[in-house]
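Appendix B. One record, verbatim.
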Amino acid sequence: MRKPLLVALVLTTSLGAWQTPATEIYLAPLDSARGRPDAAINISNNSGYDNQPSFLPDGSAVLFSSQRDGKQMDIYRYDIATRALTQLTNTPEGEYSPLVTPDGKTFSVIRTEADATQRLWRFDLDGSNPRLVLENVKPVGYHVWVDATHLALFVLGSQGQPNTLQYADTTTGRAEVIDSRIGRSILMRPGTGTVSFVSKPAEGRWLVKEFDPRRRAIATLTETADINSSEDCAWLPDGRLLMASGAKILAWTSGSGWAEYADFSSGGTSRITRLAVSGRWLAFVR
Protein backbone atom coordinates (compact mmCIF):
# COMPACT_ATOMS: atom_id res chain seq x y z
CA MET A 1 0.00 0.00 0.00
CA ARG A 2 1.32 3.42 -0.92
CA LYS A 3 2.04 5.73 1.98
CA PRO A 4 0.33 9.13 1.93
CA LEU A 5 2.16 12.17 0.59
CA LEU A 6 2.72 14.87 3.19
CA VAL A 7 2.77 18.62 2.73
CA ALA A 8 3.82 21.30 5.22
CA LEU A 9 2.32 24.80 5.13
CA VAL A 10 3.03 28.09 6.92
CA LEU A 11 0.28 30.63 7.70
CA THR A 12 0.70 34.22 8.90
CA THR A 13 -1.44 35.91 11.55
CA SER A 14 -0.12 39.03 13.31
CA LEU A 15 3.14 40.64 14.35
CA GLY A 16 4.51 39.56 17.70
CA ALA A 17 6.40 41.57 20.28
CA TRP A 18 9.72 41.14 18.47
CA GLN A 19 8.46 42.32 15.07
CA THR A 20 8.23 38.80 13.73
CA PRO A 21 4.91 37.43 12.50
CA ALA A 22 3.06 34.97 14.72
CA THR A 23 2.93 32.03 12.34
CA GLU A 24 2.18 28.33 12.65
CA ILE A 25 3.23 25.30 10.64
CA TYR A 26 0.62 22.80 9.49
CA LEU A 27 1.08 19.28 8.17
CA ALA A 28 -1.25 17.37 5.86
CA PRO A 29 -0.96 13.84 4.43
CA LEU A 30 -1.33 13.74 0.68
CA ASP A 31 -4.12 11.42 -0.34
CA SER A 32 -2.52 9.00 -2.80
CA ALA A 33 -5.86 8.24 -4.45
CA ARG A 34 -6.87 11.86 -5.09
CA GLY A 35 -3.35 13.29 -5.18
CA ARG A 36 -4.52 16.04 -2.85
CA PRO A 37 -3.89 16.81 0.83
CA ASP A 38 -6.29 15.76 3.57
CA ALA A 39 -7.03 17.82 6.71
CA ALA A 40 -4.01 19.63 8.18
CA ILE A 41 -2.83 19.61 11.80
CA ASN A 42 -0.83 22.28 13.64
CA ILE A 43 2.63 20.85 14.41
CA SER A 44 4.31 23.96 15.88
CA ASN A 45 1.66 25.06 18.45
CA ASN A 46 3.52 28.16 19.53
CA SER A 47 2.41 31.75 20.13
CA GLY A 48 5.55 33.10 18.45
CA TYR A 49 7.22 32.76 15.07
CA ASP A 50 7.39 29.35 13.36
CA ASN A 51 8.47 29.23 9.75
CA GLN A 52 10.55 27.76 6.88
CA PRO A 53 9.60 24.07 7.15
CA SER A 54 11.61 21.45 5.28
CA PHE A 55 11.48 17.67 5.35
CA LEU A 56 14.11 15.08 6.09
CA PRO A 57 14.86 13.19 2.86
CA ASP A 58 12.78 10.17 3.96
CA GLY A 59 9.82 12.36 4.96
CA SER A 60 9.92 11.17 8.56
CA ALA A 61 10.32 14.59 10.16
CA VAL A 62 10.02 18.34 9.58
CA LEU A 63 12.74 20.86 10.45
CA PHE A 64 11.73 24.46 11.03
CA SER A 65 12.80 27.74 12.62
CA SER A 66 11.01 28.80 15.80
CA GLN A 67 11.13 31.60 18.35
CA ARG A 68 10.15 30.29 21.79
CA ASP A 69 12.16 32.29 24.32
CA GLY A 70 11.54 35.78 22.99
CA LYS A 71 15.18 36.22 21.98
CA GLN A 72 16.20 34.50 18.77
CA MET A 73 15.30 31.73 16.36
CA ASP A 74 16.40 28.16 16.88
CA ILE A 75 15.87 25.03 14.80
CA TYR A 76 13.34 22.41 15.88
CA ARG A 77 12.49 18.94 14.61
CA TYR A 78 8.98 17.48 14.51
CA ASP A 79 8.89 13.67 14.15
CA ILE A 80 5.75 12.70 12.27
CA ALA A 81 5.28 9.15 13.61
CA THR A 82 5.66 10.04 17.30
CA ARG A 83 4.60 13.72 17.11
CA ALA A 84 7.63 14.51 19.26
CA LEU A 85 9.12 18.01 19.07
CA THR A 86 12.88 18.35 19.68
CA GLN A 87 14.97 21.51 19.91
CA LEU A 88 18.10 21.03 17.80
CA THR A 89 19.96 24.34 18.17
CA ASN A 90 20.24 26.48 21.29
CA THR A 91 22.64 29.30 20.52
CA PRO A 92 22.88 33.07 21.09
CA GLU A 93 22.64 33.48 17.30
CA GLY A 94 19.46 33.04 15.26
CA GLU A 95 19.08 30.14 12.84
CA TYR A 96 16.65 30.12 9.90
CA SER A 97 15.68 28.04 6.86
CA PRO A 98 17.05 24.58 7.76
CA LEU A 99 17.79 22.17 4.91
CA VAL A 100 19.34 18.71 5.11
CA THR A 101 22.55 18.71 3.08
CA PRO A 102 23.08 16.32 0.14
CA ASP A 103 25.21 13.92 2.21
CA GLY A 104 22.31 13.44 4.64
CA LYS A 105 24.64 13.91 7.62
CA THR A 106 24.13 17.60 8.40
CA PHE A 107 21.66 20.42 7.94
CA SER A 108 22.45 23.93 6.75
CA VAL A 109 20.90 27.18 8.00
CA ILE A 110 21.00 30.90 7.45
CA ARG A 111 22.55 32.19 10.67
CA THR A 112 22.19 35.73 12.00
CA GLU A 113 25.47 36.25 13.81
CA ALA A 114 26.21 38.52 16.79
CA ASP A 115 27.00 41.49 14.53
CA ALA A 116 23.82 40.83 12.43
CA THR A 117 25.79 39.29 9.55
CA GLN A 118 23.75 36.62 7.72
CA ARG A 119 25.86 33.74 6.44
CA LEU A 120 25.40 30.07 5.63
CA TRP A 121 26.31 27.57 8.37
CA ARG A 122 25.84 23.85 8.88
CA PHE A 123 25.23 21.64 11.93
CA ASP A 124 25.27 17.91 12.55
CA LEU A 125 21.76 16.43 12.46
CA ASP A 126 21.52 16.54 16.26
CA GLY A 127 22.22 20.30 16.25
CA SER A 128 25.84 20.07 17.35
CA ASN A 129 29.14 21.12 15.77
CA PRO A 130 28.25 24.39 13.98
CA ARG A 131 30.65 25.48 11.24
CA LEU A 132 30.69 28.14 8.56
CA VAL A 133 30.04 27.07 4.96
CA LEU A 134 30.70 30.24 2.94
CA GLU A 135 32.85 32.80 4.73
CA ASN A 136 32.68 35.69 2.29
CA VAL A 137 29.18 35.39 0.80
CA LYS A 138 26.75 37.63 2.69
CA PRO A 139 24.08 38.63 3.54
CA VAL A 140 22.40 35.35 2.58
CA GLY A 141 18.63 35.14 2.94
CA TYR A 142 17.67 31.72 1.49
CA HIS A 143 19.41 28.77 -0.14
CA VAL A 144 19.08 25.41 -1.84
CA TRP A 145 21.69 22.72 -2.42
CA VAL A 146 22.29 21.87 -6.09
CA ASP A 147 24.80 19.12 -5.27
CA ALA A 148 27.34 18.36 -2.54
CA THR A 149 29.48 21.44 -3.29
CA HIS A 150 27.18 23.91 -5.07
CA LEU A 151 24.27 26.04 -3.92
CA ALA A 152 21.83 28.57 -5.31
CA LEU A 153 21.51 31.54 -2.94
CA PHE A 154 19.17 34.46 -2.40
CA VAL A 155 21.56 37.27 -1.43
CA LEU A 156 20.07 40.47 -0.08
CA GLY A 157 20.91 43.67 -1.90
CA SER A 158 22.62 46.51 -0.04
CA GLN A 159 22.21 50.27 -0.26
CA GLY A 160 19.04 50.07 -2.34
CA GLN A 161 20.31 47.40 -4.71
CA PRO A 162 17.99 44.48 -5.60
CA ASN A 163 18.27 40.99 -4.17
CA THR A 164 20.23 38.60 -6.38
CA LEU A 165 20.31 34.94 -7.31
CA GLN A 166 23.88 33.69 -6.86
CA TYR A 167 25.50 30.35 -7.64
CA ALA A 168 28.10 29.37 -5.04
CA ASP A 169 30.89 26.80 -4.90
CA THR A 170 31.84 25.62 -1.40
CA THR A 171 35.22 24.35 -2.58
CA THR A 172 36.33 27.83 -3.68
CA GLY A 173 34.11 29.90 -1.39
CA ARG A 174 33.07 32.05 -4.33
CA ALA A 175 29.66 32.96 -5.74
CA GLU A 176 28.60 34.47 -9.07
CA VAL A 177 25.52 36.59 -9.71
CA ILE A 178 23.02 34.87 -12.01
CA ASP A 179 19.98 37.16 -11.88
CA SER A 180 18.52 40.03 -9.83
CA ARG A 181 15.14 41.09 -8.44
CA ILE A 182 14.27 37.60 -7.27
CA GLY A 183 11.90 36.22 -4.65
CA ARG A 184 12.70 34.08 -1.63
CA SER A 185 11.57 30.72 -3.01
CA ILE A 186 14.57 28.87 -4.49
CA LEU A 187 14.02 25.17 -5.23
CA MET A 188 15.44 22.23 -7.13
CA ARG A 189 13.02 21.18 -9.88
CA PRO A 190 12.53 17.39 -9.66
CA GLY A 191 14.29 15.31 -12.27
CA THR A 192 15.88 18.23 -14.11
CA GLY A 193 18.92 19.42 -12.19
CA THR A 194 17.63 22.98 -12.60
CA VAL A 195 16.86 25.60 -9.95
CA SER A 196 13.46 27.30 -9.98
CA PHE A 197 13.01 30.82 -8.61
CA VAL A 198 10.56 33.71 -8.78
CA SER A 199 11.57 36.74 -10.79
CA LYS A 200 10.10 40.05 -9.53
CA PRO A 201 10.86 42.69 -12.16
CA ALA A 202 10.45 46.37 -11.39
CA GLU A 203 7.55 46.45 -13.87
CA GLY A 204 5.27 43.73 -15.17
CA ARG A 205 4.18 40.32 -13.92
CA TRP A 206 6.17 38.14 -11.55
CA LEU A 207 7.46 35.00 -13.27
CA VAL A 208 8.59 31.54 -12.25
CA LYS A 209 11.91 30.86 -13.95
CA GLU A 210 14.50 28.10 -13.90
CA PHE A 211 18.27 28.29 -13.93
CA ASP A 212 20.35 25.52 -15.50
CA PRO A 213 23.72 25.48 -13.68
CA ARG A 214 25.35 23.37 -16.40
CA ARG A 215 24.61 25.82 -19.21
CA ARG A 216 24.31 28.97 -17.06
CA ALA A 217 20.99 29.52 -18.84
CA ILE A 218 17.68 30.93 -17.57
CA ALA A 219 14.24 30.05 -18.98
CA THR A 220 10.74 31.21 -18.06
CA LEU A 221 8.25 28.56 -16.92
CA THR A 222 5.08 30.51 -16.13
CA GLU A 223 3.60 33.59 -14.51
CA THR A 224 3.03 33.27 -10.76
CA ALA A 225 -0.33 31.97 -9.54
CA ASP A 226 -1.34 35.28 -7.94
CA ILE A 227 -0.65 38.57 -9.70
CA ASN A 228 2.48 39.93 -8.02
CA SER A 229 1.52 38.77 -4.52
CA SER A 230 2.41 35.09 -4.17
CA GLU A 231 6.04 34.00 -4.29
CA ASP A 232 6.29 30.76 -2.26
CA CYS A 233 6.47 27.51 -4.21
CA ALA A 234 6.95 23.77 -3.82
CA TRP A 235 7.38 20.99 -6.37
CA LEU A 236 5.38 17.77 -6.21
CA PRO A 237 7.29 14.60 -7.13
CA ASP A 238 5.23 14.29 -10.33
CA GLY A 239 6.55 17.63 -11.59
CA ARG A 240 3.61 19.89 -10.73
CA LEU A 241 4.43 23.23 -9.12
CA LEU A 242 2.42 24.41 -6.10
CA MET A 243 1.78 28.03 -5.12
CA ALA A 244 -0.63 29.52 -2.60
CA SER A 245 -3.38 32.03 -3.35
CA GLY A 246 -5.02 33.14 -0.12
CA ALA A 247 -6.20 29.96 1.64
CA LYS A 248 -6.01 27.90 -1.53
CA ILE A 249 -3.11 26.07 -3.14
CA LEU A 250 -2.88 26.00 -6.91
CA ALA A 251 -0.95 23.53 -9.03
CA TRP A 252 0.77 24.35 -12.33
CA THR A 253 1.41 21.82 -15.07
CA SER A 254 3.36 22.65 -18.18
CA GLY A 255 0.92 23.11 -21.05
CA SER A 256 -2.13 23.27 -18.78
CA GLY A 257 -1.50 26.27 -16.52
CA TRP A 258 -2.79 26.77 -12.97
CA ALA A 259 -5.67 24.80 -11.39
CA GLU A 260 -6.97 24.53 -7.82
CA TYR A 261 -5.20 21.82 -5.84
CA ALA A 262 -6.42 22.31 -2.25
CA ASP A 263 -8.61 24.68 -0.23
CA PHE A 264 -7.88 25.17 3.48
CA SER A 265 -10.30 28.05 4.08
CA SER A 266 -12.69 25.85 6.06
CA GLY A 267 -10.02 25.42 8.74
CA GLY A 268 -9.87 29.14 9.46
CA THR A 269 -6.92 29.83 7.20
CA SER A 270 -6.89 33.18 5.43
CA ARG A 271 -3.42 33.20 3.86
CA ILE A 272 -0.85 30.50 3.23
CA THR A 273 2.80 31.42 2.68
CA ARG A 274 5.71 28.95 2.79
CA LEU A 275 5.19 25.47 1.34
CA ALA A 276 7.22 22.27 1.54
CA VAL A 277 6.60 18.81 0.11
CA SER A 278 8.03 15.35 0.60
CA GLY A 279 6.98 12.24 -1.26
CA ARG A 280 4.40 11.66 1.47
CA TRP A 281 3.48 14.97 3.12
CA LEU A 282 2.64 18.62 2.57
CA ALA A 283 3.70 21.32 5.06
CA PHE A 284 2.58 24.95 4.96
CA VAL A 285 2.75 28.14 7.00
CA ARG A 286 -0.20 30.36 7.86
